[in-house]
Amino acid sequence: MPDYQAILDEIREETRPLLCQGHVADYIPRLAGVPREKFGMAVVTLDGRLYQTGDADEAFSIQSISKVYTLTQALQSIGDRLWQRVGREPSGNAFNSLVQLELENGLPRNPFINAGALVVADVVLGSPPDPRAQLLATVRRCSDNAALRDDPEVASSEQANGFRNAALANFIRSFGNLDHSVHDVLGFYFYQCSLAMSCVDLARGFLFLANQGRCPWSGGNILLPDQTRRINALMLTCGTYDAAGDFAYHVGIPCKSGVGGGIVGVIPKQLAVAVWSPALDAKGNSLAGSAALELFTSKTGLSIF
Amino acid sequence: MPDYQAILDEIREETRPLLCQGHVADYIPRLAGVPREKFGMAVVTLDGRLYQTGDADEAFSIQSISKVYTLTQALQSIGDRLWQRVGREPSGNAFNSLVQLELENGLPRNPFINAGALVVADVVLGSPPDPRAQLLATVRRCSDNAALRDDPEVASSEQANGFRNAALANFIRSFGNLDHSVHDVLGFYFYQCSLAMSCVDLARGFLFLANQGRCPWSGGNILLPDQTRRINALMLTCGTYDAAGDFAYHVGIPCKSGVGGGIVGVIPKQLAVAVWSPALDAKGNSLAGSAALELFTSKTGLSIF
Amino acid sequence: MPDYQAILDEIREETRPLLCQGHVADYIPRLAGVPREKFGMAVVTLDGRLYQTGDADEAFSIQSISKVYTLTQALQSIGDRLWQRVGREPSGNAFNSLVQLELENGLPRNPFINAGALVVADVVLGSPPDPRAQLLATVRRCSDNAALRDDPEVASSEQANGFRNAALANFIRSFGNLDHSVHDVLGFYFYQCSLAMSCVDLARGFLFLANQGRCPWSGGNILLPDQTRRINALMLTCGTYDAAGDFAYHVGIPCKSGVGGGIVGVIPKQLAVAVWSPALDAKGNSLAGSAALELFTSKTGLSIF
Amino acid sequence: MPDYQAILDEIREETRPLLCQGHVADYIPRLAGVPREKFGMAVVTLDGRLYQTGDADEAFSIQSISKVYTLTQALQSIGDRLWQRVGREPSGNAFNSLVQLELENGLPRNPFINAGALVVADVVLGSPPDPRAQLLATVRRCSDNAALRDDPEVASSEQANGFRNAALANFIRSFGNLDHSVHDVLGFYFYQCSLAMSCVDLARGFLFLANQGRCPWSGGNILLPDQTRRINALMLTCGTYDAAGDFAYHVGIPCKSGVGGGIVGVIPKQLAVAVWSPALDAKGNSLAGSAALELFTSKTGLSIF
After folding, report:
1. pLDDT value at position D94?
2. Helix, strand, coil % in chain B, rounded to nearest 5
3. Residue percentage of chain B with pLDDT more than 90
4. Which helix (H) or strand (E) element contains residue C214?
5. pLDDT digit string (tens) for B77-131?
6. Are strands D40-45 and C23-24 parallel, antiparallel or unpaired?
7. Domain C4-300: top CATH class
8. How far apart are CA D292 and CA D244, in angstroms?
């Protein structure tokens, strides 16, 4: 077994020069205020061992990483019927593009672009009584952290600036692919994006995807083994915006990124790894975080390919 | 001078077989309820003579024809500065497409596609105290009809079903090309679309465009001669959705159509002509109305080309 | 009647400062070698009077202006059946774009974008015995200049660099919308573009379009009055690449431009006007030439609107 | 270890009802003439054991599967410099689309769409003395079959009907992203597509990708371990046209398909599997072949996720 602690510490040093590069998301004050020097990384192996470096215990806004959890909820709720309302193909366009949505009549390409996540949110809203409480409970259970919560200031800033997402939601609604009101769908979506988690939370919280859907802490089955494999496949092909091909090429494991600077990766039957560094590259993925994951798979020799 | 009355009556007969073709707009009840048998046509010449046939006195929802009046208001208000926020080119896409808007960073191609009309509405909202009252006053003055008014039921139905327009407005707002709230811009836009006018109102109400911008009834100057020529040019290149090329080819005069089945045409220094028949062709223009205008220019020999 | 000679001389002076702006086409040596100081302008009125200024007698490569002549030939040959193979709508895209062609299954939007001109060339090739000789004869007759000819060096340079046009032709062929070989269609197309004409030739050569299709010199009917009006309508909506809306707005008469720096305009029942200045604006139209035409319609008060 | 022979025989039975569905490629006679009843499948494990069923020894046209071999050649030749001329992202468009190529200025999205394969062919042509002989030698060595060859009739039919590919090549050339003539690039491309291989050949011939780049038969290193992982990643994200997301989801291993009905899959460190059935689904992948691969990973429990 590789010496994960040593590897994480090495990566911390080797990526330090990158922290001054890239651009911290600044469309809402809460994200803009995060110092670009922050860097954390955590690994949790299947047997529950935890390795961490840097600011791995500091919570940040998970943003689009939440899409994996709501997809999980939607699959728990309606199973493969979900795929009648959202596709499974990489998009070849920016994460918030409306072009493809128009050409394909309101059927989003996959659940990890914003349009697809809005449809997933609409599905989740169809499961009473309290979808937000249910999402929070799932994330807490997976992460084994009962104190984990959302950040209402982030959600309300997102709402105030979310014109592009409001455009997407109205557009999808115009094609009849939303059952709930645009207001409710956006409200839920901004809630999920505002969940605050640390690298340790995220590594723990994604370990069920490396473990055939079974949560190691509670022993509960979050997803069936088949569904688990398929979410991993979706993360690989669509999880890192319009850089998924590059990620598969350079990193070689399923990953999901967020505009808050977090990225989580899964190596099936082995481990989950999370990294956080707020400054983003041109495609919206954490710049130092992407480099850290490439170093991780290279140093450990782990890859699914 | 052609015998306009005889020509209108002939056209009425010749287009009768077309009234059973096409599709009446049905996205809101008020439009869906209009009988497809309706047909009216009116001509007003520069010396003020009126000719009419069929249901030319019956008011209908002018919808996109209103875009000519709000463009007029915007040019009165900020002049050529308008063109920093909206283009003057035909779109080559459907009237409510978002594709081009994305490729061109939120700058609508022209003021007659919905996206452009929303930006124009935003400009008009910048002229206090009461833009709606001012619009209504202008339309009444041009049409010489003080009883002319809006139809609130149409506006509220539009609002309830206007997801595509809400998508457009939010999208433009995300590019920073709206100053007012999406709610206010859409409210004004649905108001303008709900104005109810007859063919006689419209023919009278567009005569200033055939008269170098001068309103024959009040003697007031609505627009400068230069601005008038330019609105006519825009109507020719962009006034009939994605059929403007075909209209220029077959009809050969500046026209503006609406989804309520109305079309108005202008022959500079001669006359204005309005036609109404609710069933639309595949591009959203009145089917019998388009045929009637082609017959009109063919029978009178009038054309700008 | 305006004093055309004085107006042309004024325009010559007023546009002189613009000659240093813009970019002379340089994709083939023959065009790249034309001095940017060149400027010529000519007007021919319906009664045959000629006015000219600057380098109005110097021949240049007419390039896309030739598309009006081949469209004329195609309409003479197969009439309105042409419109089953090419549309009449403005494109909303660059003149050599393939995007729209793909979305619309190989049916070019109009005969004045390159794709449409290739289909028109294919139609013309279907009229034996010698389409090139026939084109040349028509242009000579319209221009009343028996010495007018093509420039083989231009045609062969175009051929050697015409990858984009070869892409278009192969693409259209893949949709089944070319009857002749790609090689033959391109050969004819590069031939037509290589015709060399002066402003005087062009003003004379387009006068039939201001004269209901009748050639004033020979007295022959080139086109029917109806067809003539329709070509003028097409020139207005599609004649100046992706700036047709702006041209209609600022110049207000049907025009056709070429990448050699020529632009011809038609004022029905009055005159034809041609201008030449090699440096182009960002949309591919002669920069000083566009300004000159705007000055011309403004100073003479002539406009179709 | 699973009983591969039994599994292959089961799959053969279970997919039999699918052979009457889908559409055999018919754009060239040689492909159109293949009976839709054909079905073959072969597995070769890392220790060299071979399992096969049905028509697994019958050679067919590998078409786009050849793109993996030419990519291998290009990486051998110029390494990562290749990625300055072609991207690594899924396309989100049909395999022969020109739209994205235009928006992205002639840089193809990945080496497995036709545009990308043409650029790869151009790179390969830069390695004298005889690129075709070198390609054939590589394929023969990998497949351990010295009798393997191309089918000149297929290549010449492709050439005669390859207007779309000629459009792509000319288009790329117009952006300056081809060094060799369009004629030579297309000639090489049609040659590579015409290689004829059986399922047994293909399973053997792709085993080096499951073996870290090392050819088990000759013991030679075709690619470095890193390069091998990366080709597998590209196959997963881009190997099956616009169905790559669906393939990753349902099949879960790197695959490359061809319009001749073949599909090859790689399970790193385990095996290579090839299947052939000529009738295609709407996205251009073998219909029964796709089902067979999904059954294979499901029955064996093998997946990379």
Report:
1. 63
2. 50, 15, 35
3. 89
4. none
5. 999 999 999 999 887 666 667 777 877 789 999 999 999 999 999 999 998 889 9
6. unpaired
7. alpha beta
8. 16
pLDDT value of residue A96: 65
Contact B44, B216 (CB under 8 A): no
Do A92 and D89 lie within an 8 Å CB cutoff?
yes
DSSP letter, residue C286 = B
Per-block mean pLDDT, blocks of 10 residues, chain D (305 long): 96 97 93 96 96 98 98 95 94 70 85 96 93 96 96 94 94 96 97 98 98 92 94 96 91 97 97 98 96 97 93
Sheet holding A60-61, edge to edge: A60-61, A195-197, A149-150
Q: Are the C-beta atoms of A61 and A30 separated by less than 8 Å?
A: yes
Which run of H or E residues covers position D68?
A: helix D66-78
- Minimum distance, in Å, between the CA of residue B171 and any CA atom of chain C: 20
Give the span between the Cα atoms of D125 and A6, in whole angstroms. Answer: 46
Q: Looking up tokens 């940040």, which residue turns up?
A: A60
CA distances in angstroms from A132 to A69, A124, A138, A183, A300, listed in the order given? 12, 9, 10, 15, 38
Antiparallel, parallel or unpaired: β D262-267 and D271-276: antiparallel
Angle between the N-to-C axes of helices A163-174 and A114-125, in degrees from 0 to 180, rounded to the nearest 10: 70
Specify the amino acid at residue C258: G
Count of B–C CB contacts within 8 Å?
106
As annotated, the active-site residues of B are 64, 67, 189, 241, 259
The span from the CA of A229 to the CA of A217, in Å, is 20
Cβ proximity of B120 and B159 under 8 Å: no
Q: Write down the pLDDT at residue B94.
A: 63
Instruction: Map tokens 């006519």 to a residue.
Output: B232
For chain B, list residues whose CB is within 8 angstroms of any CB belonging to chain C. 87-93, 100, 109-110, 228-230, 232-234, 236-238, 242-246, 248-250, 252, 254, 268, 303-305
Segments making up each domain of chain D, as ranges: 4-300
pTM reported for the whole predicted model: 0.93
ipTM for the whole complex:
0.92
The predicted structure's pLDDT at residue C95: 60
Q: What is the pLDDT of residue A95?
A: 59
C-alpha–C-alpha distance, residues B108 and B119, integer Å = 8
Opening angle at CA B259, ends B255 and B264, nearest 5: 25
Who contacts D179 (Cβ-Cβ below 8 Å, separation ≥6)? Answer: D122, D125, D126
Going by C-alpha positions, the residue among C94, C110, C120, C98 that lies closest to residue C170 is C98
Please give the mean pLDDT across all residues of chain C. 94
CA D237, D241, D244, D245 torsion: positive or negative?
positive
Closest Cα partner for B227 from C256, C268, C15, C252? C252
Instruction: Tell me which DSSP letter residue B125 carries.
Output: H
Instruction: Count CB neighbours of B233 within 10 A.
Output: 27
pLDDT per residue as tens digits for the range B199-256: 999 999 999 999 999 998 888 999 999 999 999 999 999 999 889 999 999 999 999 9
**pLDDT higher than threshold 80 for residue A148:** yes
**Chain A residues within 8 A (CB-CB) of chain D?**
87-93, 100, 109-110, 228-230, 232-234, 236-238, 242-246, 248-250, 252, 254, 268, 303-305
D292 sits in which H/E element: helix D287-300
Pairwise CA distance, residues D209 & A108, whole Å: 33
Neighbours of chain A (3+ CB pairs under 8 A): B, D
User: Which residues lie below 8 Å from residue A259, measured CB to CB, with a gap of 6+?
Assistant: A25, A31, A63, A64, A280, A284
**Chain C: residues touching B (Cβ < 8 Å):** 87-93, 100, 109-110, 228-230, 232-234, 236-238, 242-246, 248-250, 252, 254, 268, 303-305
> Which residues lie across from D267 on neighbouring strands?
D271
Residue type, position D47, single letter:
D
Provide the residue type at D303 as one letter.
Answer: S
C191 labelled catalytic: no
